[in-house]
User: Fold this.
Amino acid sequence: MKLRLALALALATAACAPRADDREDPARAPSRDARASATGSAPVAAAPATAPATSTASRPRIAVLGDSLTAGLGVAKTAAFPALLQARLDSAGLDFEVVNAGVSGDTSAGGLARLDWALDGDVRILIVALGGNDGLRGLPAEELQGNLAQIIERAQARGITVVLAGMEAPPNYGRDYIVSFHKVYPALASKYSVALVPFLLQGVAGDETLNQRDGIHPTAAGARIVADNVWAILKPIAEARRRPKT
Assistant:
């Protein structure tokens, strides 16, 4: 709990100011539409900061729907945790194409708005790594739960296996909010029988040596631990889903 509160405090501290990484690299900064969705206004479909071209490859896909933690803000594209998952899949002989559908600043509403883009092609597995920005802005936990539920339902309706990555809320909105926010992820995992990564940043949050100067975004070393957290859940699912759809 101390580790998670340390992350939450760092998130709260950095929430009010634009990140230096965003100013230095406009290509990675949230789009105007993404910023609108992040503040809780009406969802607008937003393209990822670096949108991959439509693939003509026959490989099935694993889509990672997330925010700046997924996009890899502040690190090389190859150091973001989705790219590390791709390397592990390749090493394990699991023939999947990982699609990084991360947008900096995105909330669960923003992720829901661009879900169809993320599910383009032969997506077999969807990793949902959203909620950090909902917590930063103190958006209602009920809204977070509703948005994530819609994402899960729409993915499952297509026969896609969902992996849900948990996040924690900052402490400045009070204990009731922290608790209600925390409960969203296990409740959804139970209701929809989806695999759960309890806390995406486990082992990274609160460790200055594994985070960039903003205290929020992992360094390359931190991203490797995030990849470890996801890989532990993803590997057996990928092994099961590599068989062709029936």
Residues 2-45+58-241 form a domain with the Rossmann fold fold (CATH 3.40.50.1110). The longest strand covers residues 123-129. The chain is about 45% helix and 10% strand.
